[in-house]
Design goal:
Helix 2 runs antiparallel to helix 9 (353-371). This protein has 574 residues and is α+β, with helices and mostly antiparallel strands. It has a 6-stranded antiparallel β-barrel with strand order 2-11-14-13-12-15. The longest helix is centred in the middle third of the chain and has 59 residues, at 249-307. It contains 10 helices and 21 strands. Strand 18 and strand 19 (542-547) form a beta hairpin. It is elongated, with a radius of gyration of 44 Å.
Length: 574
């Protein structure tokens, strides 16, 4: 009996010992056990540095300043002489027409004839109905027939003067149109232009490469400064070294391992720094050579343009126009005399207001006929009023073209294309009028020249958006295609820069998770704490922020599990 009691006591004692051992194990290793269940996070310091921003976006290419070819008469099309995409010169035939006169011209001529007949009938009737004494009272010794002949002759002289004024007016306008559309140079500069565009692309690429190399060097310098400073003993290495003597035995080995790893990183970045400096030197030399080649290509292009200088031809046209304008002024003076003479004759016989209205009807009918200028259909053809590229055709063989309808649209030479792109108001502050943009479409060739011409308030969202309007020139631009471009490049220094992966967003706005450290008897605890931030600028990899955080604080960049504010986490180094 006593033996059983002793065995029972022994069993209870052993159970108590086992319980105490387990309790001690759980007590001393609870920190390690718990860590394995926590989200593991990658962290990085908040640092200062530079952000180089560019504005990217897309829009639909549109033809700029299209010239609408319209007609004043309804005619039937016999055949087309051009197709969309064809290049035409001023005076080239666009289409052939049936020989039949237009219905508008026929009706206008009929109206003129009817007005003239009505006037003659009313005038003869008036003169026959009135006594000869009416005429004699105005000017004695004149017969009715004499007055009729005088009035008829005066009317013809006035109409001849009107015709001469109209003819000279049209000639002057035609010369002015040629002056407005005459190129500054007629030299063939295709090769020089291509060479300039290639040199410009090479210079832009060299500048971009230099920026990339310089940014890479700056990034390495920041890492060196952050990890070990200029002496290799400050920065993170100095930080962990200072903490090494203050942590518990459980964390001391971890900190020692971290310090050794940081020193290895520091030495590695010193080697990368040497390579990066060499790349910057090489890129600087390449940029200088590219800029020199660009300047030479620009000089070659300007020299070639000057060889085809059309200033003399333009001055010749201006002299010709001045001659027509001088003749026109004289013709207008003569026209005024003829009008006055005709009106005086009508006044001498006290012509009634109804007969005057008959004559005004003749004038109106002739003016309407004059508007239907037959010159646009010379030889039953429609010719190009300007040089350019056929953009659209609204006519077809066998179909009628109506008066005032757009028969064709021509893209004038040198007018180029346009594209609109909506951006935020903040993005619009990065760019300036005159900035060059580059296409990012895979189909676009490098010889496309894109220039930002204006910045306007967006019609979609005037309060928050702006519209960038680009002018585009090049051989491979197609109206209606979607094109993506990037424009503007501005480098700014900021005090707080974090990786883009560190920025989170919810209904309350953007924020980052900052690591805060809490000490406990069982070791340090690392807590993810929310800090709201405002993103000031971004590039492809990092963002500048403002908020209630300090430089050199740890922030979470990635994690193997979802992390919420207030969660306890473990660091990659642990």
């Amino acid at each position: 009996m006593e033996d059983k009691k002793n065995k029972r006591k022994e069993w209870i004692k052993n159970l108590a010992i086992i319980f105490l051992v387990i309790l001690l194990i759980l007590t001393f290793f609870s920190n390690t056990i718990m860590n394995y269940s926590l989200p593991q996070v990658a962290t990085q310091y908040v640092e200062n540095g530079n952000i180089t921003t560019r504005v990217r976006g897309s829009g639909t290419v549109e033809t700029g300043d299209l010239y609408n070819v319209c007609v004043k008469e309804t005619r039937k099309v016999k055949s087309l002489a051009v197709k969309v995409g064809d290049k035409v010169q001023e005076g080239d035939i666009l289409l052939y027409l049936d020989e039949a006169e237009s219905s508008e011209s026929e009706a206008a001529r009929k109206k003129v004839k009817e007005a003239e007949d009505a006037f003659d009938t009313a005038l003869i009737g008036f003169l026959k109905e009135n006594d000869v004494s009416v005429i004699n009272s105005a000017k004695s010794g004149q017969s009715i027939e004499t007055y009729m002949n005088k009035i008829s002759a005066a009317r013809k002289e006035k109409e001849a003067a009107d015709t001469k004024v109209d003819d000279l007016t049209n000639k002057s306008a035609s010369i002015q149109n040629k002056i407005d559309n005459y190129p500054a140079s007629n030299a063939n500069v295709t090769n020089e232009t291509n060479a300039y565009n290639n040199a410009k692309a090479a210079a832009d690429a060299a500048e971009t490469n230099l920026t990339v190399c310089q940014n890479a060097l700056d990034e390495i310098n920041r890492y060196i400064e952050r990890i070990g400073g200029s002496d290799g003993e400050s920065g993170e290495i100095g930080y962990y070294t200072a903490l090494y003597d203050t942590v518990s035995n459980n964390d001391a080995q971890n900190f020692k391992s971290i310090i050794e790893t940081k020193k290895q990183e520091y030495n590695s970045y010193l080697s990368k720094q040497i390579e990066a400096k060499k790349k910057v030197d090489d890129a600087t030399t390449q940029k200088a050579n590219a800029d020199l080649n660009l300047k030479q290509a620009e000089n070659n292009l300007n020299n070639k343009k000057s060889q085809g200088d059309t200033t003399g031809k333009i001055n010749e046209l201006k002299n010709q126009k001045a001659k027509y304008d001088e003749e026109l002024e004289k013709a207008k003076e003569e026209q005024a005399k003829k009008v006055k003479a005709f009106e005086n004759l009508l006044a001498e016989v006290n012509i009634s207001d109804s007969i005057k209205r008959n004559y005004e009807a003749i004038t109106e009918a002739k003016e309407e006929l004059a508007k239907l200028s037959t010159s646009e259909f010379a030889d039953d053809t429609l010719k190009a009023p300007i040089s350019g590229t056929i953009a659209n055709i609204g006519a077809a063989a066998g179909k009628e073209i109506s008066a005032a309808a757009e028969v064709m649209q021509i893209q004038p030479e040198g007018k180029g294309y346009t594209m609109k792109m909506d951006v935020t108001t903040e993005q619009s502050k990065i760019v300036s009028v005159g900035d060059k943009a580059t296409p990012v479409n895979t189909w676009a060739d490098d010889d496309i020249d894109i220039t930002l011409k204006s910045i306007k308030v967006s019609e979609k969202d005037p309060a928050k958006m702006k519209t960038l309007i680009f002018e585009m020139e090049g051989e491979n631009i197609v109206a209606g295609h979607e094109m993506s471009v990037q424009v503007g490049q501005r480098t700014q220094s900021f005090d707080l820069i974090v990786p883009n992966s560190a920025i989170r967003e919810d209904n309350n706005g953007k924020f980052v998770l900052v690591i805060t450290q809490k000490s406990s008897p069982l070791g340090n605890r690392y807590i993810a704490t929310r800090e709201d931030v405002t993103v000031l600028a971004s590039d492809d990899t990092k963002s500048a922020i403002s908020g209630a955080i300090d430089a050199w604080q740890y922030i979470i960049t990635t994690a193997n599990k979802p992390v919420e504010p207030g969660d306890q986490v473990r660091l990659n180094e642990q």
